[in-house]
Each structure stands twice: as structure tokens, then as C-alpha cells.
């Protein structure tokens, strides 16, 4: 007799369910050049820049985001902007992995930024002591370069948007993004 067993597991295909947060990608997807995460997702233990195995341990980091419209408050007053941005910002905790090469590159960038900052502050103090406005301008310029180097070289990922459903991050390498399933939206 060909009777169906009502207690047998389903024979339905699970191929379409591989991108749900509970299976497959772990709640991480690719949307063009943006990495999309569910708020409780964890990143795979691979370098987010080159997709090589990540060096352990991986530190958790907080990323913040606020609406770009809040930047208009700078035109009124910088202090008001800072207060409103702190109140309205959204936060996500991520743990992006880096391989040994990219960790070394990041540490080197941090060391260069700190060295530039110390040199800039030293030049600024000497310019004030000697009453040399040209050297003071040079010291401020070196401090500005240190800030730009710090912001560009040491940042791993940056938040593009954070809402209740998804965390969208920029700064991942193409190889890492290519290993992620596409975001269905």
C-alpha cells in the first residue's frame, strides 16, 4: 500500500530559504557595494577587506548613524548640531574581522596619525613660544593632515544607515562582498 506517513518530514525544497537570517548567511547580505546586516547578525570570521581568514580575536565596535538632514543644524550652531546628533543617533555593535595584513596596515596608519598629531602640536607650541604665525599655520596644517589620515586609514567600516530592521555598512572589500548572498530586500 502506498500510504503517506503524516509524521514524515517535508520533502519541500529549502533552496529559496538559504538567505534567511536563521540559515546560510547568518543575517548578512550584499546590496551592491553595501553590506546589509540584521541587527542581531554576526559577521563571518573573514577579513572584511580581502576575504582571507580573520586574525582572532575580533573586537566588537560600535557604529553610529544619524539622518543626514541633521547636518543642516551646523548652519545654526555647532553645539546644537552635536546635541541633536547625540540624541537622535542610532547605534549598532559589529565585529568586523581583519586579516594580519590589514591589521598591520591599520596599526601603521594609527601610528602615523599619532606621530603627525604630536609633531603638529609640538610645532604649534614652538610657534606660539617664538611668536611665528607661519609656523603656527604649519602646525595646524599638520594636525589637520593627522586627522584626515586617522579618519581614512584607521576606520574599518562605516554606517550608511541604521534602522530597526537592518544595519547598512560601507567599506567592505569586493572579495568579501562577493562571498555574501544578494539582498532580497
Describe this structure in words.
The protein has two domains: 25-98 and 156-185, no CATH class; 100-155. 37% of the residues lie in helices and 15% in strands. It has four helices and six strands. Strand 5 (158-162) and strand 6 (167-170) form a beta hairpin. The relative contact order is 0.20. The model is unreliable at 12-24 (pLDDT under 50).
Can you summarize this structure?
The chain is an alpha+beta fold and 185 residues long. 37% of the residues lie in helices and 15% in strands. The strands form two sheets. Strands 1-2-6-5 form a four-stranded antiparallel β-sheet, with no helix packed on it. Strands 3-4 form a two-stranded antiparallel sheet.
Q: Layout of SSEs?
A:
Elements lengths: L27 E4 L2 E4 L23 E5 L12 H11 L1 E5 L5 H31 L2 H21 L4 E5 L4 E4 L3 H5 L7
Helix pairs in contact: 2-3
Amino acid at each position: 500500500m502506498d500510504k503517506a506517513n503524516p509524521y514524515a518530514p517535508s520533502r519541500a525544497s529549502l533552496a529559496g530559504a538559504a538567505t534567511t537570517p536563521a540559515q546560510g548567511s547568518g543575517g548578512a547580505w550584499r546590496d551592491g557595494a553595501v553590506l546589509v546586516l540584521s541587527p542581531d547578525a554576526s559577521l563571518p570570521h573573514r577579513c572584511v577587506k580581502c576575504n582571507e581568514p580573520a586574525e582572532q580575536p575580533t573586537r566588537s565596535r560600535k557604529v553610529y548613524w544619524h539622518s543626514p538632514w541633521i547636518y543642516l543644524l551646523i548652519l545654526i550652531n555647532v553645539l546644537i548640531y552635536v546635541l541633536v546628533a547625540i540624541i537622535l543617533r542610532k547605534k549598532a555593535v559589529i565585529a568586523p574581522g581583519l586579516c594580519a595584513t590589514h591589521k598591520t596596515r591599520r596599526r601603521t596608519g594609527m601610528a602615523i596619525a599619532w606621530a603627525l598629531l604630536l609633531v603638529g602640536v609640538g610645532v604649534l607650541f614652538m610657534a606660539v613660544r617664538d611668536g611665528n604665525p607661519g609656523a603656527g599655520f604649519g602646525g595646524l596644517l599638520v594636525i589637520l593632515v593627522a586627522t584626515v589620515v586617522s579618519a581614512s586609514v584607521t576606520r574599518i567600516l562605516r554606517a550608511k544607515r541604521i534602522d530597526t530592521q537592518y544595519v547598512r555598512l560601507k567599506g567592505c572589500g569586493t572579495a568579501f562582498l562577493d562571498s555574501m548572498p544578494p539582498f532580497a530586500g
